[in-house]
User: What shape does this take?
Amino acid sequence: MFKKKVFITAAALFAVAATSNVQAASGRDYISIVGSSTVYPFATTVAEQFGKTTKFKTPKIESTGSGGGMKLFCAGAGIETPDITNASRRIKFSEYEKCQSNGVKEIIEVKIGYDGIVIANSKKAGRIDLNKKDIFLALAKDVPNPKGGETLVANPYKTWKDVNPALPDTKIEVLGPPPTSGTRDAFVELAMEGGCKKIGWIKALKKKDKKHFKAVCHTVREDGAYIEAGENDNLIVQKLQANPDAFGIFGYSYLDQNSDKIQGALVGGEAPTFDNIAAGKYPVSRPLFFYVKKSHMGVVPGMAEYLGEFSSEKAWGAEGYLADKGLIPMPEAERKQYVDAIKTAKNLVLTKK
Amino acid sequence: MNSDKKESTMDKVNRGLAKRYRKERRFRLFGLGAIITSVAFLGLLFVSIAANGWTAFQQTEILLDIHFDAEKFDVDALAAADYGALVKASMRELFPNVKGRQDKRKLYKLASTGASYALQDMVASDTSIIGTTRKVWLPADDEVDMFLKGYIPRDVPESDRRLTDKQVSWIDQLVADGRLEKKFNMTFFTAGDSREPELAGIRGAAVGSLFTLAVTLLLSFPIGVATAVYLEEFAPKNKWTDLIEVNINNLAAVPSIVFGLLGLAVFLNVFGMPRSAPLVGGLVLTLMTLPTIIIASRASLKSVPPSIREAALGVGASKMQAITHHILPLAMPGMMTGTIIGMAQALGETAPLLMIGMVAFIVDVPGSVTDPSTVLPVQIYLWADSPERAFVERTSAAIMVLLAFLISMNAFAVFMRRKFERRW
Assistant: This one.
C-alpha cells in the first residue's frame, strides 16, 4: 500500500518536473533581474510600477549583491539566465571578459543615478566635520608614523581627537558594511583612497608600486574600531541610536528615512543632503548602474517597456518617484545621454586599462 | 555486620540527610530557574514583536469624494484613464487654498500611489459608477500612516522629519474632518510584496510557503517513512547499513546552506529547473528534512513492542502484512510528529533558498509550483532590510504570522500524538 503511494507521488512529481522543464525551455513571460542590494529598492519600485500600469507581468528581482549578480548575468546567453543585472559600481574588466567568453557579447550599460554614502551618528551627540584624511587615518589598518618619516605603523589612534585635534574626544567606533558589499567597495575607494592621496609620499607611491598603494589605502583596520555590521543597514541605525558615540556607514536613503534620529557627518565641509549630493558637492557619492543583455531584447516580453519606464522622467527625473525613494538623479544632460543609449541599444565596449 | 560499631547506618544516613535534601532542592531550583529564564526570554521576544507589529494590522485610509467624470473614460480602454488625476482633483477640492506646484505635489503625496490602482479596480469591476460621484476610502501614504501611529514625531524641526509642517497641518485638518481614519489592514493579507509599505502584503509569501511545503511534504514523508521501514524491518545488519545510518545522522546536522548549494548545482544547473520556483525550493527542503523524518520514524518503529510483531507473525501474517497492518499504524503518530516538526523547521528556513533564487522581489501571488515565488521568512528578511520606516512594523507583523503558522503546526503535532498515541 505504502510503496504504491510512493510510486504514485514520485511519478506525479516527475511529471510536474518534466512539464516545468518544457516551460523553462520554451521561454519566460516575465523579466528576470538580479544584482545589487543598493539598487534593489529602486529597481523594485520601477518593476512594481511597470507591472501595475502595463499588460506585462511584474519582473522578478533578486537581491544578490553586485558581484553575485554579475556572475549570474555573465553565466551565459540562454533564456534561463537573468536579463538585467543591477550594480552599485561599474562592471569590472574581468567580469566583462567573462561575459564575452560565455557568449554574452552585447551589453547595454545604463547609469540610473547616484547614491551618497554617509557617515552618520546619533542626534544625541554633536555633528562632526570630517575630511577624507581624517577618515583614512581613523579607519586604515596601517597609517604613516605620527612621529614623522615615510614609514607605516599599525594604526595607533584610539579617539577621534588623536586623529585630528578639532574632533571630539570619543573612542573611534564605526559600524560599516562587510567586504562583500558594494557600499564598502565604494566607501574604501572614494573616502579612504581620497584621504590617502592627501599624504604626499603615499600619493607618490601610486606611480611606483600601484599594488602596494592599493594595499595601504584600501585596507580597513581590524582591531575592533571598525565593526562589520552585516548588510542590514536598519540594524546599524538602531545601534547608533543605542550608542551615541558610534558612527555608521550606509547609503543616503537610510539617513533620509531616519533623519529625526541620526545625522550625517560633514565631509570636507559638505553635509550629505539631497541637493549637495545631486550637485556633486558631497564627495562620497557613487553612480549606480544596470546592465542589459541585448540578446534577450524582443525575446522576453516587456524588456523595452521596462527600460522605457525606468528611464522616463517620472521615474528617474529630478522630481520622479525614485527621488522620493532616495535615489539622487543624474543631471539632465546625463539622463538624456542614457535615454539615447537605451534607444539606440548602445553596445558596451570595455578595453583593458 | 556493623552492629558492633557505635554508629549505625541509619545514623550515618540521618547525619547527611539535611544536606541531601538541600542538594535536592537546589537541583530542583536549577531546573525551575532554567525554565523560568527561557520562558522569560520567549515572553520578551513575543512582547517586543507584538508591541512593534500590532499597529501594522491597521492602515490609515483617507476619505475622498471621487468624481468619475464620464468624459474622462474611454469605455474600450478603461485601463488607459488617468486615475491618479481623479485622486488629485478630489484632493485639490478638499484644500482649495493650496496653490503652487511644490505645495500641490506635497498635498498629492498624502494619498498613496495605490489609490489610483484601487480606483482602477473599482471601475473595472463596476462600470456603472462612471458619471457618478462616490465617497471612497483610499489608502493613505505610509508617511501619513506612520505619523498618525506616532512613529514620526511632531515636535522636531521640520527638516528632521519627512513630512513638512504644511503637510502636518493638512493631516490635522483631515483628521478633524473625519476624513483620515485607521482601518483594519486587509491589504496586508490579500496583496503580494510591494515597495510601498501601505500596499505590501504577505499573501504572495504565504502562498509560496504553502506550495513549497506541499512539495516537501509530498516527497519527504513517503520517502522518509519507506526508508525508515526498510532500514528498521528489512535491512540486514552489515557494514553498508551502518554506513548509511552514520550518513543519515550526519546529514541531519549539515548546515542548511549546503543543501542550497546542492540544489543550485543539481536541480538548476543539471536538470535545468526554473529559478525561484517553489518546486525547487520544496526539493531542496526535502533533502533537508528527510534525515529528521527518517530518524523520528525509526525511533517510533523501534518503540512498537516486539510482542505485537511476533503475535502477528505467529497467527500467520506475512512480514509485509505484519508491518502494514500492525506496526505502521502503531508507529504512525510518532512518524507524523517527526514529520510535522521537520516541516516546521523547513517553514522557517531561508539559507538554502537564497542559492536557488527565492530571495527575490515578487509582486504577483504565485499560481503554481513553477511560478516564481518567495516564502515567509524570506519576506521578513527583505522587509527588515528596507529603508522605509513603515516596513519595521510590517516586519514584526509578518513574524507574528509566521509564528502563528509554526504554533499551529506544532499544536497539531501534539494533538495527533495525544489522539493516536498508545501506551503499553
In short: Residues 2-26 of chain A form the longest helix (25 residues). The first strand of chain A starts at residue 32 and ends at 35. The domain at 116-285 of chain A is CATH 3.40.190.10 (D-Maltodextrin-Binding Protein; domain 2).
